Amino acid sequence: MEPIRVHSGLVYPMNRANVDTDQIIPKQFLKRIERQGFGQFLFYHWRFDEEGEKRDSFSMNDKKYTDASILVAGDNFGCGSSREHAPWAILDYGFRVVIAPSFADIFYNNCVKNGILPVQLSEDETQAIIKKAEQQKLELTIDLEKQLVVEEEEFNFSFDISDYHKQMLLNGWDEIAVTLTHEDKITAYEERQHLTG
């Protein structure tokens, strides 16, 4: 997993609350067994019509958001089922950071496990970012070490994150990598069990 310390990027604002995992990645696209290739199906029913043509009415299809790597959304983002495909699709599309007032717990944890930084800000802070990004191209810098969301002209917001999640993201660790940081203790335990067994 790629570590994330400081990320600067273009914001895509999605001013919707209660975006569930079936809206993030519809169930008909879950047949793949590898983690790659899901980005093309992200928000599929919103992005495309019945013929597979891009909908002009959906803002994500606007060229000004091409190459956005920071998704800012409404409250309770990632609710619904526990499918890990949702963060896979978000990451594969190109988003490294998701900002929202709140997240579904399982989705939040799945983001961290897959190298996406979920940032929880207040409703007012999130809406301020969304409104500005709807009006103009907006770039933010997210500093995980300092736990700050910064935009030179206006925003300087702090956020909380558990030390465990922070270390996973800073080091690019998944849960297996975290376990392997204790490899010497695991080996010592196994050797003791072998001697007493």
Automatic annotation (TrEMBL):
One GO MF term? 3-isopropylmalate dehydratase activity
**Pathway(s) it belongs to:** Amino-acid biosynthesis; L-leucine biosynthesis; L-leucine from 3-methyl-2-oxobutanoate: step 2/4
GO cellular component terms, semicolon-separated: 3-isopropylmalate dehydratase complex
The alphabetized UniProt keywords are: Amino-acid biosynthesis, Branched-chain amino acid biosynthesis, Leucine biosynthesis, Lyase
Using the record, list the residue span of the signal peptide; answer none if the entry has no such feature.
Answer: none
- The catalytic activity of this protein is classed by the Enzyme Commission as 4.2.1.33
Pfam families cross-referenced by the UniProt entry: Aconitase_C
Q: Which residues are in the Aconitase A/isopropylmalate dehydratase small subunit swivel domain? A: 6-123
Q: Which GO terms describe its biological process?
A: L-leucine biosynthetic process
Q: What class of enzyme is it?
A: lyase
Q: Tell me what reaction this enzyme catalyses.
A: (2R,3S)-3-isopropylmalate = (2S)-2-isopropylmalate
Q: Which InterPro entries match?
A: 3-IsopropMal_deHydase_ssu (IPR004431), Aconitase/3IPM_dehydase_swvl (IPR015928), AconitaseA/IPMdHydase_ssu_swvl (IPR000573), IPMI_Swivel (IPR033940), LeuD (IPR050075)
NCBIfam families documented for this protein = leuD (TIGR00171), PRK01641.1 (NF002458)
Q: What is said about its interaction partners and assembly?
A: Heterodimer of LeuC and LeuD.
General function of this protein? Catalyzes the isomerization between 2-isopropylmalate and 3-isopropylmalate, via the formation of 2-isopropylmaleate.
Q: Which family does it belong to?
A: Belongs to the LeuD family. LeuD type 1 subfamily.
This chain belongs to the protein called 3-isopropylmalate dehydratase small subunit
Q: What is the lineage of its organism?
A: Bacteria, Bacillati, Bacillota, Bacilli, Bacillales
